[in-house]
Amino acid sequence: MSAVVGARMLDGVRQWLAENGTEPTPARVAEALRAQGRVLGDAEILGTAVQLRSELVGAGPLEPLLADDSVTDVLVSAPDRVWVDRGKGLELTGVSFGDAAAVRRLAQRLAAVAGRRLDDARPWVDARLPDGTRLHAVLPPVAVGSTCLSLRVVRPRAFTLAELAAAGTVPPGGDRVLRALLDARLSYLISGGTGSGKTTLLSALLGLVGPQERIVLAEDSAELRPDHPHVVRLEARPANQEGAGQVGLDDLVRQALRMRPDRLVVGEVRGAEVVHLLAALNTGHQGGCGTVHANAARDVPARLEALGTAAGLDRAALHSQLAAALSVVLHLVRDRAGRRRIAEVHVLERDPSGLVVTVPALRWGEKEFVRERGWERLDSLLAGGGWSGGG
Hints:
By secondary structure, this protein is α/β, with parallel strands linked by helices. The chain has helices at residues 7-20, 26-35, 42-56, 63-67, 100-113, 161-167, 174-183, 198-206, 249-256, 273-281, 300-310, 315-325, 375-382; strands at residues 73-78, 81-85, 90-92, 124-128, 134-138, 148-152, 188-192, 215-219, 231-235, 263-266, 289-293, 328-334, 340-350, 356-363, 370-371.
């Protein structure tokens, strides 16, 4: 912030504009400055107008970062600590805020744009902005020292499978396996940690679904952007300030089943919706899919078991439904270089005790997928869609 346009002057102009209900145009800024007894030249007035507009409209100093097509995440941990992720790990930028109060103001304004409350009584928010950007913010003193702001960018266009292969997410020849997975209408989950690319891969795969099929998406926050002509999107809704009006993912899955889906998709399986999803996949809804947080493909059955148990489904019943409902797990990792890639592909089977376990079928290879002991099982499943790539 320049010496001319100090924080106190900026606050005074902001307050005058708020009281008079006007936009921060250069003329109005000049009027506000005169009201404070300040007389500045045209350049200073224009600079003040630009600075105010940056704070009052868009994402302020973060706007250029969000406009960068290569940026997937923008993270603010302090006024002078703004990080971005361009797919190769976190990078510290040269962007900074005037002070901690400026970070707080931006977080509160973005929350208001999303229709959410962010103040001392409710010091955190998780919401989606009108352009699809995912917002998370935490205010002090819960966030120590400064407001922490996290923005996950949702691009309007999904990556194609060819682009993911070129980026190294899919190994050479791996796209044939993924296309066969869709053609065979196998039900699958994409697992991985935060930021591993689960949503990106799922969007790309959904774009390969035949144009005559109807895809119904149920998401906690609308992030999937499949390039497909027939997509119905349902988004969960949090409770209002009175605690009413909440619509959960389990509600959305129930409604989606009544909308004649050819492909039922749950953006992220994280709660009671797992019960309805497994039930749906067991009643003729082939080709369903979704994502789930897990450290490895082998952990997915235990993760689903924990979610199902919390939703009131006993262990035996869940594993019985899981065995019949789900066929494949695609697991994504993010390596030390920041590259996202499909580390392994597992198939599901029951062990002697009747519990569902995953069996490695393919693992990442620089030249192609490397076959594991579950390959024969996966090969036979893919054959249902006309696959002839075994051997």
